[in-house]
Amino acid sequence: PEGRGHREDLQAALFVALSSPEIHVRDEAIRTAGKLAKWGGVYGMPGSLDGIVSEWLDNMANHGNIAADGAASSSPASPEGIVVGPGASPWSAVDPYQTQSSHLTAVAEVISHSRPESVSDRVARLCLDASREYLFSKDGSVREAAARVLGNTLNSVGDADDAANVMREVVLNMTNDEGSVVTVSSKSVFGANRDNEESVIAKHGRLLACNSILSTQWGSDLVVTPDICDAVMAFIHGCVKDRNNNAVVRSAAYHAVGPLLGKSSAIATHTDTLSKRTSTSTLKEMRSDILKGTRASEHVDVQVALARGLTAASRMHPGIFLCKGGMPVMDAALMLAMSSSVKRPQVQKAFQIFLWVALQMGGGGGGGNVGNGHADGAMYVGTASGGGGGSATMSSPGLERYIELAEGENGRIMMKFVTQTLAKIEDLDDQGGMCR
Fold first, then answer.
1. Around Cβ 305, how many Cβ atoms within 10 Å?
2. What's phi and psi for 179, nearest 5 deg?
3. Cβ 57 vs Cβ 126: under 8 Å
4. Are 193 and 186 in contact (CB under 8 A)?
5. Mean of the pLDDT values across residues 257-284?
6. Alpha-carbon distances of 279 from 226, 275, 406, rounded to whole Å
7. Helices 247-262, 279-292: crossing angle, 10 deg rounding
8. S-S: 219 plus which of 263, 275, 307, 333, CB 3.0-4.6 Å?
9. How many CB atoms lie within 10 A of CB 211?
10. CA dist list (Å): 226 to 116, 168, 222
11. Phi/psi of residue 180, each to 5°?
12. Cβ–Cβ under 8 Å, residues 310 and 365
C-alpha cells in the first residue's frame, strides 16, 4: 500500500511537471516518464503503465485549456503546493498547446519504453484515438507529438494489420467496401477551402503520421503492399510539389521520404500480392524530387528536413545511396555540406551529418530502425578545415564505395572533405525511437 501511494504521488507530480511553464521542467518530466516506464516493465508493477497513460490522456482531454480542434475549454486552476523560485514563469502564462504537446510526448515515451504486455488493449485504443484527434490540432508541435504517440503505439503493441489499417484510414483516406473511411476528428480539416484544396493542417498531420507509421517495425510490410505503397508515393510526391509552396508541408514530405526509402526492400518480390518495387526503383522515382530540394533557392527548413529524411533512410538501409542511382543525391549533398554560406549553417551541418551516416563513418551506417528521428545530434571535435582524422576515413567502406562510383573529380573532392571535415565528427546520437 505504501509503495502504491508513492507511485500515485509520483504520477501526480509528473502530471503537474508536464504542465509547468518552464520548458526544462517539462523536458525532464518527459525523460522521467520514459524511465518510469522501464522501471514499471522490469518490476512488473500491475497496472502502473495502464494507469499512467489513461490518467494523463483523460486529464489532458478533460482539463486542458484548448481542445484538439482549438476550441477553448475551462482553464484549470493553478496547482496547489507548487513552489517556484524568483524569475519563474507564472502558471497563468502556460501555453495550453505546450501542455498538450508535453503530455502527448510523455505518453509516447511511456509507450515506447514499456513492455507490450504492460499496456492494456483499452489504453492502446485510447492512445490511438487520442493521437488521431490531436494529429489535426491547430498547433504544429501538438501534431508532431500526436504522430509520435500513433507510431509508438503501433510499434509497441500493434501488428502489421493495425499499421496497414491506420495508414489507409488516417493517412491515405482510402475507401473500403463500405465506402470512404474518414476519422471523425479529421472531417473538418479534410474539408475543402475556398480553393478546393486540402488544408495545411490536414496535409501536415497526415505526413507526420505517414512518417511515424512507416518508421515502425511494420514499415517494411507496408512498402511492399501495392495499394499502400502506390498511394504513399503519390501523396508524398504531391506534397513535395505543393501548389502553394508551403514550407511546413514540403518539409514534412521530405522528412517522410526517409522511411519510405529506408524501409524499401533491396530485392524485388515475386508474388501477385506484393509490390515489385525495390529500394533502387523507389529511389529512382523519388530522385528528381530529392534533387529539387537541394537547389540553392530552396527554403532552409525544407533543406534541413530533406537532409534529416535522407539521414533516416541511410540509418534504416545502410548503403542505399551508394549505388549508381544514388550518386546524384550524394554529389548534391556534398555541395551543400561544403557550402560556406554563413546564412545556412544548419543546412550545411545537416548534410554533413547525412554524409557521415551515408558513408558509414561510424562503422556500418547506423543500421537499425530509426523513427521520426530526428535526433541527429552530431558531436563535433571541430568543423574548420584542417588536417587530421585520416584513420577515420580509411576505415569507411562507404567512402571506398563512393570513390569507386564517382565520376570526374568528385571522388577526390569527397576524400578531401571527409579527411578535413567529416572525420572530425566524433559520434552521432544513434538512438532509435520514434519520439522526437
1. 25
2. 115, -165
3. yes
4. no
5. 77
6. 14, 12, 20
7. 160
8. 263
9. 31
10. 29, 12, 8
11. -65, 135
12. no
Q: Count the neighbouring beta carbons within 10 Å of the beta carbon of residue 183.
A: 17
Length of the chain as a residue count = 436
Q: Bin 390: left if φ > 0, else alpha if -120 < ψ < 50, else beta.
A: alpha
Q: Is the dihedral of CA 323, 295, 333, 221 positive or negative?
A: negative
Q: 311 by DSSP, 3-state: which?
A: helix
pTM: 0.80
Cβ-proximal residues to 383 (8 Å cutoff; 6+ apart), any chain: 349, 421, 424
Which residues, 6 or more positions from 164, have their beta carbon under 8 angstroms from its beta carbon?
A: 218, 221, 222, 225, 228
Tens of pLDDT, residue by residue over 185-224, are 333 344 444 444 579 999 999 999 999 999 999 999 999 9
Burial of 93 by CB count in 10 Å (0-12 exposed, 13-18 middle, 19+ buried)?
exposed
Collapsed DSSP state (helix, strand, coil) of residue 310: helix
Please, which residues have CB within 8 angstroms of residue 169's CB and are 6 or more apart in sequence? 181, 182, 183
d(CA 217, CA 156): 9
* Chain CA centroid to CA 360, Å: 21
3-state percent helix, strand, coil for the chain, nearest multiple of 5: 60, 5, 35
CB half-sphere exposure, 293, CA atoms < 13 A:
32
Alpha carbon distance 315, 325 (integer Å): 18
Q: How far apart are CA 100 and CA 67, in angstroms?
A: 9
What region does 417 belong to: left with phi over 0, alpha with psi -120 to 50, or beta? alpha
Separation between Cα atoms, residue 141 and residue 160, nearest integer Å: 27
The 3-state DSSP class for residue 210 equals: helix
Which residue from 110, 103, 142 is spatially nearest to 20, judged by alpha carbons?
103
Residue (of 79, 73, 74) closest to 19 by Cα position: 79
Output the average pLDDT for the chain: 77
